[in-house]
Amino acid sequence: MKEVRSLTSLRWFAALFVFFFHVDMAHRTPLTWLPWRLQAIVQQGRLGVCVFFVLSGFVMVLAASRYLAQPADNFLSAHYIRDFYQRRFARIYPVYLTGLLLVAAISLRLSTLPSWPVILANLTLTTGYFTDTRLAWYAGGAHSLSTEFFFYLVTPLLLFWLSQRSRLALQGVAITAVAVGVGLGVINMLAPGRLSMDVPFAFPPFRLPEFVCGICTGLLVVRYNWKPAAWLAPVLLVMCAIYLSYAGPLVPAVTLLHNWIVVPTVAILLASLYHYESTPLYSWMQHRWLHSLGEISFCFYIAQLPLSQLLDALIAGKHVSQNNHWVTFVGLLLNIGVAMAMRKFIENPAYDWLMRKTKKPQRTQVAS
């Protein structure tokens, strides 16, 4: 698997986008000191999850690149499926469980533990499938991991099918995926009351188009050497920022309507980072500090959840003022510190231990 350091750095920016969104919520410490156009962009921070979903699909192709020259049936083999699921579980669940235990400890201290069905749904990463648990507890953040695990369940089947498609077919699937994803939001907007507003955002199958678009982009890049113009991604990013600064306040990100521009922009950015990361336009994304922050991005996201719950309790108890803008900077440093500790003492050791426990002799490994 080719390591693309700038893709790891991109994860940090997506996680940071989500962090500022969480801090800026009306019941917390709104970032009113920002220019209002910039704050309008921050308020669309849910789109950081969209970046993760598209990037996840792209990385799945990079991790499976050695299999692309082999028969597609290998993606459905017991060997590949077992190895893939073991690696994904070992990488994700220990950190997720740590965050859940921290949230449970805070909830216990505040006497706000939810019912056992909600706790069980969070433990089993099934919150996104049920109305009563979709955004319940765990600071409302478990839905993204519930969705990500759904993606993992269908990844072998998607790779099996999409790896056999032509370049033109992959382009068609990617365009269709964007249209379907946005269309679900449009239907929900035009027929209010049919579905709760959180369904397009947090119900795992509704987010599948973003992941599929990432896989298609990865296959176009790795197998067919698709190269967008180097200047295209920066131009689209500027256009996307301008669009969100004006349209963001009019349409909530939870509807996914902004994905018509966000998903293609992310896809083109991923392809550009893959091909052009050594050029002056993109080489700064390989900086070791950005890369290091990218490596802790998952822990950074998970750490946000108990810290957000703690901030809510401090504000409710009048221990922290909503007008205290130092909360953002102190919270950011604290979040980074906790994430670094989780990476060093939970994520890496747990991954190594679980992989040793499940590793079989003479086994060809799939890059994680």
Automatic annotation (TrEMBL):
Coiled coil: none annotated. It comes from the Bacteria. One of its GO terms (cellular component) is membrane. The chain crosses the membrane at residues 44-69, 90-110, 135-161, 168-191, 203-222, 229-251, 257-276, 288-306, 326-346. The keyword Transmembrane applies. GO terms for biological process: polysaccharide biosynthetic process. This is Peptidoglycan/LPS O-acetylase OafA/YrhL, contains acyltransferase and SGNH-hydrolase domains. It comes from Hymenobacter gelipurpurascens. The lineage of its organism: Bacteria, Pseudomonadati, Bacteroidota, Cytophagia, Cytophagales.
